[in-house]
Design goal:
The complex is a heterodimer of chains A (about 375) and B (about 550).
Chain A lengths: L1 H27 L13 E6 L6 H12 L2 E6 L3 H10 L8 E6 L3 H6 L3 E2 L1 E2 L5 H10 L1 H5 L2 E2 L2 E13 H7 L7 H4 L8 E4 L5 H14 L4 H10 L3 E3 L2 H8 L11 E5 L16 E18 L5 H11 L2 H11 L2 E2 L8 H6 L13 H19 L2
Parallel strand pairs in A: 1-2, 1-3, 8-9, 8-10
Antiparallel strand pairs in A: 3-11, 4-11, 5-6, 7-10, 7-11, 7-12
Chain B lengths: L1 H4 L5 H30 L1 E2 L2 E2 L3 H6 L2 H34 L5 H7 L8 H12 L14 H26 L3 H8 L4 H29 L3 H7 L6 H11 L3 H29 L17 H26 L11 H7 L11 H30 L6 H15 L6 H11 L16 H23 L3 H9 L4 H30 L2 H4 L3 E2 L4 H10 L3 H28 L10
The chains are: A alpha/beta (about 375), B mainly alpha (about 550).
Chain lengths: ~375, ~550
């Protein structure tokens, strides 16, 4: 027994360092070039966790820009934005992608991004950039470049409403209607960025003075607030889960495209397009980048048709380039709400007010 | 050569051995954490302590502190009440499948918190099998989930000690007519006291710094300091308030460590090992019943709910292996980079490196903290050293992750941006695993009677030879378990990894989180399947690690 154990141990003591060496060399394989600092042919792009396949992106972007493009991930959108602010002056990459409109002002305020020529943008992209920072846009440069967009919308299980013979709700006000008592799942905006986005919709709709009252009405009408989108959508919502008990949930305008039947002829859920708040994701060149030219080229690639046409399938967002064709099921089941239809606030206003709103709401409804 | 090695192992050699782990923890843990806290407590280059009274003056801060203490205390009590019967069954009774059962109880330790959250919600939430209990979103569920992670800690710590307990005293009491309950209360329990207290302190520490489970199941109502630091940092970038709360947490952790160290020093006396295990008897029935209910309620049901859900087809209809097939062959719209198998392989490689670092450093630390020098000052020094190495257990992952960002830009004069290097991942995981490795190895070394070493020296053995034939021989026996723990912990580590900047590659827990967060409901099923796989791999590793250990009585206690 004893000798056997000892030989196991020694086997492990030999095998482990070997495995470790193999693993290290394996991991280091893709990292070789990072050792050569200041290499003008190299560009790094830091992204959030929901970015497209990084390897494939590196290949395509390298081919398109002529630079050696590497991808880093830095957590969710909120973590990414904070990391960029914290490392201001000694950036972790040359360019970034994935900070959305709730946090865009934090980057502008902290002067993290290097402005790029507004001429890179056209159509809706230019429009969104101007909305974010009109002054810069007029002077011919923009600090942040809109790459894709989406919308946070209330979703309903249409099959459930059909079965119960209850009329489907349409507006934010409907959710507070006693006809829909105990049917709604909300997201805690202090814990979930999707939840925060929905809160912004309620502020845009009911005003800074009225939104707390609206949330109180929702609460009085039996709305349940959970911590994360996953729990809300995948376990509480009747639209996707057998165990779910509530047919109304805060989610995305694209969600119905994922609940289509096998032949993609119908979806059992629907996004209420009058309850949405727009989400825009931005990219930019980081101040202090060792390769600003390369960084700009990568940002430009993010706007290229090649990249834009893959956004819907890979990131579940709508490309900012309106000429790019959307997947068939999206066109049918997941239309983007019209820009006048959504409940939005300017990014600067969000930045100024967000902390206060979250705290006020938290205290008022005891999230 | 021979004559030279006969000289006593010099203080220089010990100093060198002690310096390596200190350097590691200092550079990769203390420096980043202090840097971040300092950033929060300075403004414009000036020390600004105004945040301390301000944050401590908030009613919310006190509520969060109270939540932390209440949850951790309750969970510690529950874990001990359920862990002691488990320790008895798993370490005093001999039956088939014991090693497997021990290994299975370790699985919760490596499951991603988000998955545990889903499992408990699936059980206690609307539509769940235990919804009728009305415990959904209550303190009870938070406490149960914390206990879910920690019953095994108690079972291991107390069990490892119990197995070594000389049972003759108890037998004597029995012959004198005392009933089993009386023997337990008057003889066994006092003898187990130090182990119980030590386990309790450790569990308290784990629970007081728990992040994922409290965030998901507790929400805002039951937020603890750890989740509050996370929200202040990630949501508000309010480093000032976060720094103050980090200091509060640090104080709690330090206190728990001091208590734990005090209790442990009484615990780990040198003793003769007497392993006495036997087959279960009829008188064991009540204990077996408690253990059975514990395993069923706390482990089988949540994990069963998880496995069951992972086997369900789209929209929760029917049984299918589609989720498992997707792990190998990712669907077209997969949010992952590559397949889940790729992520698992990467995790495996990183875990190898992290294990190597953690076990190497852990062995050095254990060798040092297991010494009992005659000088009282040196003994105190060793106690402080021991506590310092345990500190990484108690700091929030977000504080560490953001701190590393501030400090690892070409650190210590190396011309290399460590912040964005893959090397930082195994380093961070090794930090998390190190305290567990030390807690696994140290009791083994402490159980060596110093007289054994002295006798060997007297007979002419060189200090190195003593180390090799006595210390390392014993270490070898529990090295398997330490390796297993380090490996399993690093494989399942999520917090620290998630807060680092990573080259484009996903470890298994990070991939699971990405799947869970993807709007495609099919990804959710894949996440559940991937979690089951992660749990299965971890259980497999622990089964091997348990087998590895020759002497079930020695070591393996935290």
């Amino acid at each position: 027994m004893r000798t056997r154990a000892r030989s196991y141990t020694s086997a492990a003591l030999i095998a482990l360092p070997l495995a470790a060496m193999l693993a290290l060399t394996g991991c280091a394989g893709g990292q070789d070039s990072s050792a050569e600092d200041g290499d003008s042919a190299k560009v790094t792009l830091v992204v959030h966790d929901s970015f497209v396949d990084g390897d494939e992106f590196s290949q395509l972007a390298s081919a398109a820009t002529g630079y050696d493009v590497e991808v880093l991930t830095a957590g969710d959108g909120g973590q990414l934005a904070n990391k960029l602010v914290l490392t201001k002056g000694a950036p972790i990459a040359d360019a970034f992608f994935g900070v959305d409109n709730t946090l865009a002002s934090r980057l502008i305020e902290n002067d993290v991004a290097l402005p790029v020529p507004a001429s890179l943008l056209k159509g809706d992209g230019l429009l969104l950039a101007t909305e974010l920072d009109a002054e810069s846009a007029e002077s011919g440069s923009v600090p942040l470049v809109p790459v894709d967009r989406g919308a946070t919308c209330v979703n309903i299980d249409t099959a459930w409403f059909a079965e119960k013979g209850i009329a489907e709700p349409e507006t934010l006000d409907d959710l507070a209607d006693p006809a829909y008592k105990d049917l709604t799942v909300l997201l805690d905006p202090t814990a979930s960025s999707t939840g925060a986005s929905f809160m912004i919709a309620t502020i845009a709709a009911f005003g800074e003075d009225g939104f707390v009252d609206y949330w109180k009405r929702l609460e009085a009408n039996g709305a349940r607030t959970v911590q994360g989108w996953t729990e809300a959508y995948n376990t509480e919502f009747t639209g996707v889960s057998e165990t779910g008990t509530r047919p109304i949930v805060v989610s995305y305008s694209t969600s119905p495209a994922f609940t289509v039947n096998d032949v993609e002829s119908a979806s059992n859920t629907r996004a209420l397009l009058d309850t949405c708040s727009q989400q825009v994701e931005y990219a930019g060149v980081l101040k202090g980048s060792e390769n600003p030219d390369g960084a700009r080229a990568v940002v430009e690639y993010l706007l290229s048709e090649e990249f834009q046409s893959g956004i819907a399938d890979n990131m579940y967002m709508y490309p900012v380039d309106e000429d790019v064709e959307l997947p068939a099921s999206w066109a049918k089941f997941a239309p983007l709400p019209e820009s006048g239809q959504t409940h939005d606030l300017p990014a600067a206003e969000i930045q100024a007010g967000l902390d206060g709103w979250l705290r006020t709401l938290g205290d008022a409804v005891g999230l | 050569m021979r004559a030279r090695s006969r000289r006593p192992l010099g203080p220089l050699a010990w100093g060198f051995a002690a310096a390596i782990p200190v350097l590691f923890v200092g550079v990769f843990f203390l420096w980043p954490v202090i840097a971040l806290v300092a950033t929060g407590l300075t403004s414009g280059g000036q020390l600004d302590l105004g945040g301390i009274p301000e944050v401590l003056g908030l009613e919310r801060s006190w509520r969060v502190l109270q939540n932390t203490l209440v949850q951790a205390s309750l969970a510690t009590v529950v874990a001990i009440l359920l862990g002691v019967p488990a320790a008895y069954v798993l370490y005093r009774l001999e039956f088939r499948g014991r090693a497997v059962l021990r290994a299975l109880l370790t699985v919760p330790f490596v499951l991603p918190a988000v998955v545990v959250g889903v499992a408990f919600t699936a059980l206690f939430g609307p539509g769940g099998a235990l919804y009728w209990l009305g415990l959904d979103r209550s303190l009870v569920v938070v406490v149960l989930a914390l206990a879910f992670f920690n019953v095994t800690v108690v079972a291991r710590t107390v069990g490892g000690y119990w197995a070594q307990l000389d049972s003759r005293q108890g037998q004597a009491a029995r012959t004198l007519g005392a009933g089993p309950v009386r023997v337990f209360c008057t003889v066994t329990l006092p003898a187990l006291g130090p182990a119980l207290a030590s386990a309790g302190a450790l569990v308290f520490l784990f629970c007081a710094t728990s992040f994922g489970v409290v965030l998901i199941l507790g929400g805002r109502e039951f937020a603890n300091i750890e989740t509050e630091v996370y929200r202040l940092t990630v949501q508000f970038l309010d480093l000032r308030s976060a720094a103050v709360l980090s200091l509060v947490q640090f104080a709690i952790v330090a206190l728990a460590l001091i208590v734990s160290a005090l209790l442990r020093s009484r615990n780990e006396r040198a003793q003769e090992v007497r392993v006495e295990v036997r087959a279960p008897r009829r008188t064991d029935a009540p204990v077996l019943a408690v253990f059975g209910v514990t395993v069923l309620l706390l482990h089988v049901l949540p994990i069963g709910a998880l496995v069951w859900r992972s086997l369900q087809g789209p929209r929760g209809v029917g049984i299918s292996f589609a989720n498992y097939r997707a792990l190998f062959d990712p669907p077209e719209r997969s949010p992952l980079h590559g397949s889940v198998v790729d992520a698992a392989l990467l995790s495996f490689g990183i875990a190898c490196v992290a294990t190597l670092i953690a076990v190497t450093l852990g062995m050095l630390v254990s060798l040092i903290v297991s010494r009992r020098p005659r000088s009282a000052a040196l003994r105190r020094g060793i106690a402080v050293y021991d506590a310092a190495i345990m500190l990484p257990l108690g700091i929030s992952a977000v504080t560490l992750g953001f701190g590393l960002l501030l400090t690892m830009h070409k650190p210590l004069g190396i011309g290399f941006d460590l912040r964005t290097s893959v090397v930082l991942i195994p380093i961070a995981q090794a930090l998390v695993a190190l305290p567990l490795v030390v807690r696994t190895l140290t009791p083994v070394l402490r159980s060596i009677d110093p007289r054994t070493r002295e006798a060997a020296m007297m007979l002419g053995a060189s200090p190195l030879r003593v180390l090799r034939t006595i210390d390392f021989a014993l270490l070898g026996r529990s090295a398997g378990l330490a390796l297993g723990f380090a490996f399993a912990v690093s494989l399942g580590e999520f917090g620290a990894t998630a807060f680092l900047v990573r080259p484009d590659a996903q470890t298994l827990p990070v991939a699971i989180a990405a799947l869970v967060g993807s709007p495609d409901p099919a990804s959710y099923g894949m996440a559940l399947a991937a979690s089951v796989v992660l749990g299965a791999i971890a259980a497999g590793i622990m089964v091997v690690a348990e087998r590895w250990r020759v002497d079930s009585g020695v070591g393996g206690s935290w």
